[in-house]
Design goal:
By secondary structure, this protein is mainly alpha-helical. 61% of the residues lie in helices and 6% in strands. The chain has 18 helices and 6 strands. The protein has a 4-stranded antiparallel sheet with strand order 3-6-4-5, with no helix packed on it. It has a two-stranded antiparallel sheet with strand order 1-2.
Length: 488
């Protein structure tokens, strides 16, 4: 039955009307969600489900088109993340982030795959009843979703110690391509009944070509942007978008990893003397929010809650094992060679194994390939994503505070009579504890995140102008500025 208002077919030709209504409702609900600590992405996803086939009746019948639009959205999200990634800021954590996004992903895949096979295989059925099918399920769920991580860390202005913020963003941007290429490799292996050895060769080729093309296009793009002088700053954003898509398209044309190529190109461009940088980043920030919103709504429309009852228990077991065993195992084993991370930092990194649109989008690959039981895998992934957003997404700030890894969010700020212009950034207060001094007792040893500056220290009744070698004591009160230090 087609709903209509004033003779306008809402679910047939005029899709603009229901989609616009959903967008308005989703944006208005973000304020409510933020107040109660609910991830914005979860709101979008649930609204899509309410409007979907088991709700109002909107549906996405062309899965190939849905997969294309989802891929387009995630490329723009990765592009924005790459442009905003500072190599100077991430330099101390690049190696652990890369190891997490490669070795960590593989450990998570194998742990979740073996658990699913030996504990749940018969309950999943179809391809999920085989070991390689369960490993495929692990691959789909192995990455931390970049859209969710960027959204939560940045929208909540969650500032983390031990350089965790840059590492988590770098990891989430680089492990999406890794999880996606492993997923495609396994789908191709199962569909073509090929050997796993050929599949691994395909994986290595994709990563190598993606990295090579992404680096090359990035360097050429920087030279081009230095030479070209455009009269309108908006054209620079469109040019950068086109260059990033060129990188993705070229890599895909040569069977390389397009997402990895695009992400590397974006990082190289973002760390160059990019013209009109502030205007470009504002443009991509807006378009990224639109892409995130539309992608989660669209993926919500794909869900059929009426079909998920049979897989609810297996999905719950998979989700809990992933959150509390597989992800922590991948994190702790991957970070073993790196001595600069405390146990609490590793625990928090384990907790930020957030799922989102990426795994749901990746779960379309076995469906489109026509693998037996792929709809069951899709439903499990969808439920695990909701579980992850509810448990992990809504508790990131709380866990960071409990582990003493975040700057206090709502302290009473003492300004010592100073008037701080609002445009300089957010003013925050922090009282030094013994836990802060574990890595060293000087101000420099605090390893404050990028964008944070200490402007005054109060010790009892004494006021101290800070410098890097200042030796701190428990109980010292710091006044800090949290703001963007980048210049155009």
């Amino acid at each position: 039955m087609i709903l209509s208002i004033f003779s306008i077919p809402l679910l047939a030709d005029n899709l603009i009307l229901p989609i616009s209504i959903l967008l308005v409702i989703a944006i208005l609900f973000t304020k409510v969600g933020t107040r109660f600590g609910v991830p914005v992405m979860l709101i979008f996803l649930l609204l899509g489900m309410l409007a979907g086939p088991d709700g109002i009746g909107l549906s996405v019948k062309n899965l190939h088109l849905a997969e294309f639009l989802g891929h387009l959205a995630i490329t723009i999200i990765l592009l924005t993340g790459g442009l905003e990634t500072s190599l100077e800021e991430t330099r101390p954590v690049q190696k652990p982030a890369i190891v997490l996004s490669s070795l960590g992903v593989l450990i998570t895949i194998m742990a979740l795959g073996f658990f699913s096979f030996y504990v749940l295989g018969p309950k999943i059925g179809g391809v999920g009843a085989t070991l390689i099918g369960c490993i495929l399920l692990g691959a789909v769920l192995s990455s931390t979703d970049s859209a969710s991580i960027f959204s939560i860390l940045r929208s909540r202005r969650l500032q983390l110690r031990e350089n965790l913020g840059p590492m988590l963003e770098f990891e989430s941007g680089s492990n999406d391509p890794m999880a996606y290429v492993v997923t495609l490799m396994l789908v191709k292996t199962i569909a073509d009944s090929a050997s796993l050895g050929l599949g691994l060769l395909y994986l290595l080729l994709q990563v190598a070509l993606g990295a090579f093309i992404g680096y090359g296009v990035g360097k050429i793009s920087v030279k081009l942007l230095e030479k070209v002088k455009l009269t309108n700053s908006s054209l620079y954003a469109i040019l950068i978008l086109s260059l990033a898509f060129l990188s993705d398209g070229l890599a895909s044309a040569f069977n390389g990893n397009g997402l990895l190529a695009l992400y590397l190109t974006a990082i190289i461009i973002g760390n160059s003397s990019m013209p009109a940088k502030r205007d470009v980043l504002k443009f991509f920030d807006s378009i990224t929010w639109l892409c995130q919103l539309l992608m989660f709504l669209m993926l919500g429309l794909l869900a059929r809650p009426s079909e998920m009852g049979d897989v609810f228990l297996p999905a719950l077991m998979v989700g809990l094992f992933l959150i509390f065993v597989a992800r922590p195992l991948g994190v702790f084993l991957s970070l073993l060679p790196f001595k600069g991370f405390s146990t609490r930092a590793k625990l928090f990194t384990s907790w930020v194994g957030l799922k989102g649109a990426g795994p749901i989008l990746f779960a379309l690959a076995p469906v489109l390939a026509g693998l037996e039981g792929s709809n069951t895998i899709f439903n499990i992934v969808f439920l695990v994503t909701i579980l992850s957003l509810v448990i992990q997404g809504s508790s990131l700030s709380w866990v960071a505070r409990k582990l003493n890894l975040s700057i206090d969010e709502d302290p009473v700020v003492e300004t010592f009579g100073m008037e701080i212009p609002e445009e300089m950034g957010l003013l925050r207060d922090h009282i030094v504890s013994e836990d802060d001094l574990v890595m060293g007792r000087t101000l420099r040893d605090l390893r404050l995140p990028h964008g944070i500056r200490v402007i005054m220290v109060r010790r009892a009744e004494k006021y101290i102008v800070p410098h890097g070698s200042l030796e701190l004591k428990s109980g010292d009160r710091l006044v800090i500025i949290m703001g963007d230090t980048e210049e155009d």
